[in-house]
Amino acid sequence: MNLERVIFGFFIVLALTLNFGFVIGEIDNPDHHSTLELFFVIIVNLVATGLKLGDRSQIGAVLLATSLVADLQLIAAAITWAIAVHVSEVGMVPNVMATIVSLSSGALVANIISVTMLTGETLMMRR
Amino acid sequence: MRKSPSSSRVTYIILRYMRRPIIVLITVYAASMLGWTLIPGLDAQGNPAYMSFFHAFYFLAYTVTTTGFGELPQIYTEAQRMWGIVSLYAGVIAWFYALGSIIRLVQNPEFQQSVAERRFAKVVARLREPFCIICGFGNTGALLTRGLTDEGLTVIVVDRNPERIKTLLLRDYRTPVAGLCADARLTEHMIEAGMLKPNCKSVVALTQDEEVNLKIAVTASLLNRDVSVMVQSTSETYEETLATLGDKVHIIDPFQTYAKYLTAVIENPAIHSLNQWLAGTPGATLDQRTYPPKGLWILCGFGRMGHWIRDSLESQGDATVVIEPNPSASDESLDGMIVGRAGQENLLKADIEHAVGIVAGTPSDTDNLSILLNARILNPNIFLLVRQNRFRNLEVFEAAQADFTMMPSLVSARRILFLLVAPLLKSFFETLHGPEFLARDGGLNAAVDALAKTVGGAQPRLWTLDTGADAGALRRVMRDGTAISLDDILRDPENRDRRLACLPLVVESGGDPVVMPASTTTVRLGDRILFCGTPRAVRLLEATLNNEYTLRYLISGVEAPRGYVMQWLTRKMAARPVRA
């Protein structure tokens, strides 16, 4: 057993599961999507990105790319939230909630690709 | 690169052929249009009206082309009708003349040749991958093309015979093969074939004409110093000139190659099965070994090749009898020479009942087959070694079931193929043939046994690793000062304790080849290593040498951390004092 694999796999899968948990529910209903969960999704995703830095293999480069995509989408979602509630004073209307959830759904797709590739690489190693 | 001359030639031929018809067409159109604008007509009210140039051209467009689209703006006057007849007939005749000229142009063989050349030049100009030029698509050329394309190399063929180029284009190859029907003696054709391009790896001259081969070799080695040249030659006068061209030129004497090979086979038949197996001949395995017996041998056919074989047999202590219908004056007085055809009578005279082996080595396949059949009737246990000259007689020779059937063109083609795809194989065979290796009893057999044990099976792959050029991961690991042995890189990435089904045949370190190196040999930067293994093993080996993490794992047995964070953490943990 390789410790790096454990930590690596843990963060990548956790990013996916938290992301899924945040996205699930009615797309424009603020009661179904928790701010705290989005916060944790972003933190776990950033940690996963950090762990991927430095890998010089091909698969490592693509994993880093998907992780960066997920970060970008999630941070965009967070910024939308902040602007709606604090800057423009529109408030958490269904329209804004739908934008936030659709941005995080994009991040979910990137996370699914990450996990698929991680599984594929592990299967190919066969040791 | 110089611009190819064929593209300008196509334009020139078109211009030369079409000049007159085009001028005739323009003149007829101009005269008709002018007439139409000058002849007065009548408009709907009966006033005189003149046609514009546009209307005149429009009228010609649907009449002269015999389209017959009849849009009549108004009733024509009698004068207009008269002019209409003139312009219609003149125009149709001019068009038929032009069409006839186009058909003649397309059928012109010179034009077809130029168009084919231009298409060929375009294909060559687009090539980015390394390729070989083969001049002469005969027996050897066809076999070599097959071998090279099976190895994944692109091949350009130049042959003077259009029939051969046609057969080439009808065949199915794994990589693209372009063929040009042209005289390889002309430098411009060789340039068209891409001789000056940096990705042209080698030029192979295999035409029937020695002089043509010499010309190709001289042109290629003078114009492109990086290209390696393989040239077929049987005459010593040409070989002297070829030898002055430098070490990039390899001379292949098909008779000498064949005779040497035959001699080697008589000395140790394992070399034949090894050769067949390495070349990927279907059905060839390493355990097919038949030993030629010792005793009296009969040689049928006594040309240059016959001399070689006789010398070799006599040096091994075998007695020989020669049957040859037209011996040279110096050979006639030879001991054991029977002048005449190798029919039953002469075979009996040669004491075939007590002979152990016979070599049917005449340049005629029919003669060789009849010798084989006669010999078998007279002595059913005799060892039969037969020379097959033509590839198309394959089925007959297979049915004849001699102990050894060998084709000179196949032996030459295989030698050139090995020189091109695995140059290190030459030193492998040379060393295995060499005196010190033969002295060690079973030197070759030991190598064959090792290959059978490690690789085994059918259709192995040969792969030359150039540590100076490919395998980036290997170089990075070497730069750290980590010592890498052959044993390390041949570990199985799936299970470190197992080895890949792959054997290093030759390691060339600083121009000094080592054959069958020990597994502890250290790999150095700039080494060239020839591997032979199963296709799967070679693929895994290539992958290992390009993946730094796998390679480091195979060397050390420890999976190194990949990310910066984990690397930092590992260093921290290693620095921490171990608690008791």
Can you describe this structure?
The complex is a heterodimer of chains A (127) and B (580). Chain A is an all-alpha fold. Chain A has one domain (3-125). Chain A is built from 4 helices and no strands. Chain A has helices at 3-23, 35-52, 58-87, 94-125. Chain A is elongated. The mean pLDDT of chain A is 90. Chain B has 580 residues and is α/β, with parallel strands linked by helices. Chain B has 4 domains: 5-109, Helix Hairpins (Orthogonal Bundle), CATH 1.10.287.70; 127-252, Rossmann fold; 256-421, NAD(P)-binding Rossmann-like Domain (Rossmann fold, 3-Layer(aba) Sandwich), CATH 3.40.50.720; 448-565, Regulator of K+ conductance, C-terminal domain (Alpha-Beta Plaits, 2-Layer Sandwich), CATH 3.30.70. Helix content of chain B is 50%, strand content 16%. In chain B, the strands form 5 sheets. In chain B, strands 5-4-3-6-7-8 form a 6-stranded parallel β-sheet, with helices on both faces. In chain B, strands 11-10-9-12-13-14 form a 6-stranded parallel β-sheet, with helices on both faces. In chain B, strand 16 and strand 17 (495-499) form a beta hairpin. The longest helix of chain B has 34 residues, at 5-38. The model of chain B has no long low-confidence stretch (mean pLDDT 83). Classes of the chains: A mainly alpha (127), B alpha/beta (580). Chains A and B meet through helix 1 and helix 2 of A and helix 24 of B.
DSSP strand count of chain A: 0
Biggest beta sheet attributes of chain B: 6 strands, parallel
Q: Structural class of the helices, strands and pairings of chain A?
A: mainly alpha
Strand content of chain A: under 5%
Overall pLDDT of chain B: 83
Helix content of chain B: 40-55%
**Order of helices and strands of chain A, N to C?**
HHHH
Report the CATH superfamily of the largest domain in chain B: NAD(P)-binding Rossmann-like Domain
